[in-house]
Amino acid sequence: MSQRSVPVPAHAPTPSSPRWLTIVMRCDRWGSYWYIAVGFLFAPALLILDAWPGAVMVAWVLISSAGLWLGLLGILMAYGLAKVLRAGEEISEEFWWSLLGRPPGG
């Protein structure tokens, strides 16, 4: 079972989409993966750091900052995708699959 490689998108998905939309979508994807993974380790880390209130505060600031960053990326992504929809264009299925890094149906 061989897996075809899918090129990483390096350009905007449509002529009307902002040039930064692809970068925002890729950052949001990887940031979400990271945030979920760290979320599973956050509660045990707080239990370990409980003896040091300063360390607990730093951990909360880091996880909160990462959540805020993902929220801002989501707002930017929604704005960019709204511009594409307002122009009456459609983003191709190949582009969406290239963001995931695998071919359709693979």
In helices, the fraction of residues equals 55-70%
Main pleated-sheet profile: none
Q: Label the overall shape.
A: elongated
End-to-end gap: 10 Å
String of helices and strands: HHH
Radius of gyration, taken over Cα atoms and rounded to an integer in Å: 18 Å
What are the segments in which pLDDT stays under 50 over at least 5 consecutive residues?
Answer: none
Structural class computed from helices and strand pairing: mainly alpha
Fraction of residues in β-strands = under 5%
Describe the structure in your own words.
The chain is mainly alpha-helical. It is 67% helix and 0% strand. The chain contains three helices and no strands. It has helices at residues 21-49, 53-86, 93-100. Helix 1 (21-49) packs antiparallel against helix 2 (53-86). It starts with 20 loop residues before the first helix and ends in a 6-residue tail after the last helix.
Features:
106 residues, single chain, elongated, mainly alpha
Set down the secondary structure blueprint.
Layout: H1 21-49, H2 53-86, H3 93-100
Précis, in short:
The protein has helices at 21-49, 53-86, 93-100.
